[in-house]
Write a structure and sequence with these properties.
Distance between the termini: 97 Å
Largest sheet: 6 strands, antiparallel, barrel
Order of helices and strands: HEEEEEHHHHEEEEEEEEEEEEEE
Number of helices: 5
CATH topology of the domain at 56-65 and 278-371: Elongation Factor Tu (Ef-tu), domain 3
Helix content: 25-40%
CATH superfamily of the domain at 56-65 and 278-371: Efflux pump adaptor protein, beta barrel domain
Structural class: alpha+beta
Number of strands: 19
């Protein structure tokens, strides 16, 4: 046993040395292979050079063609739950076309209630204007005729007793004569009251009642009109002819006049619907750095073209206008202001978006600006 122990230890030591040598060899091989330079891959496309000798480069963003401003960002004027999306993205719509419907159950009931109140006020005003009512006039005339007949009967009775008293004072007592005269006077007073009542019925409604009811009718009608106008705001409509570019809502979602939350970009206050003009022609908005503004040619001498990123395509641009206000530079990708104090001048160009171009609003492009004839 004492002779075998050194043999076992020697075998274990040899194994350790072998593993260490193998590790060193692997490390050397990896180092050699990792330091070998591989041939670079050819570019997918050749970056387009500046076509102008002293051209200006600017970042650009594609927009729909608008007389002024940019795309139409639509926000709801009321808050509510979306019940229906009535159009699709890319759909051409006419001015006034319903785009989206919000839950208007409460406002619709309020509008109907106020409209009914206005109709009731109008009906009461019509009733006052229609006076006297023929049936009421007939009743008043009949009452006057009855009181006139009663007055005549009472007068006749009194006259008979008075003549009898004049012939023979003992034929009719003084008390009976006084009673007959009083009955005649009461009947005549009733006749006079019936006459006044007939005149009142014939006169119709009092002018103060008419003016008061007309004022109530107008107030309720305006309240119903305002309620109806508010009800109409629960339907978002197209403000002009154009194309629906984006819809950032779904049925069942809650929206407010401050916009919606876009889960994709994780940004708030996004417009509910974005609209633009038809896609036959588009605009490109580019921003020229303020230090390059002195190099800009006059508007009639500007020549420009855009380069589509990821391709070698060039599209000629038509100068439209300069927005004469130098503003802080923004990141076109998410419209957030950058931290650096750099200001830029916006320029608007137009191009034909035919099948050969086929760009989309919101797409970023490279714009090269130069002077005509200076290529």
């Amino acid at each position: 046993m004492a002779m075998r122990l050194p043999t076992t230890r020697l075998s274990g030591t040899n194994l350790l040395f072998a593993l260490a040598a193998l590790g060193c060899a692997a490390g050397i091989a990896f180092a050699v292979l990792s330091h070998q330079r591989q041939a670079p891959l050819p570019p997918v496309f050749d970056p387009p050079p500046n076509p102008y000798a002293q051209g200006i480069y600017a970042n650009g963003i594609v927009e729909s063609e608008q007389p002024n401003g940019s795309n139409l960002n639509l926000y709801p004027e009321v808050a509510g739950t979306v019940t229906a999306i009535l159009v699709q993205e890319g759909q051409a719509v006419a001015r006034g076309t319903p785009l989206l419907q919000l839950d208007d159950a409460v406002q619709r009931a309020t509008a109907e209630q106020q409209r009914a109140q206005a109709q009731a006020a109008q009906a009461l005003l019509d009733e006052l204007k229609a006076q006297p009512r023929p049936e009421a006039l007939a009743v008043a005339q009949a009452q006057l005729a009855a009181t006139e007949a009663a007055t005549k009967a009472a007068r006749d009775q009194y006259d008979k007793q008075q003549r009898a008293f004049d012939i023979d004072a003992h034929a009719v007592s003084r008390d009976a004569l006084d009673t007959s005269r009083n009955a005649w006077q009461v009947a005549d007073a009733n006749r006079a009251a019936a006459q006044r009542q007939l005149e009142l019925v014939r006169a119709g409604a009092w002018t103060y009642d008419l003016r008061n009811q007309a004022a109530q009718r107008d107030a309720l009608a305006k309240a119903a009109q305002a309620s109806g106008a508010l009800l109409a705001k629960y339907t978002l409509r197209a403000p002009d002819d154009g194309v629906v570019l984006a819809i950032r809502a779904a049925a069942g979602g809650y929206v407010t006049p401050q916009g919606v939350y876009d889960a994709y970009t994780q940004s708030s206050n996004q417009p509910l619907v974005v609209m633009g003009s038809r896609q036959d022609h588009l605009h490109v908005r580019c921003y020229v750095d303020e230090i390059l503004i002195p190099r800009l040619p006059p508007g009639e001498a500007i020549d420009a073209q855009l380069s589509v990123r990821g391709t070698s395509r060039r599209i000629p641009l038509q100068f439209v206008r300069i927005e004469p206000y130098v503003s802080p530079k923004i990141a076109l990708s998410d419209q957030r202001q950058e931290r650096v104090d750099v200001r830029v001048l916006p320029l608007i160009f137009r191009f034909d978006n035919g099948d050969a171009a086929r760009l989309y609003p919101g797409q970023l492009v490279d714009v090269y600006i130069g002077r005509k004839g200076a290529r």
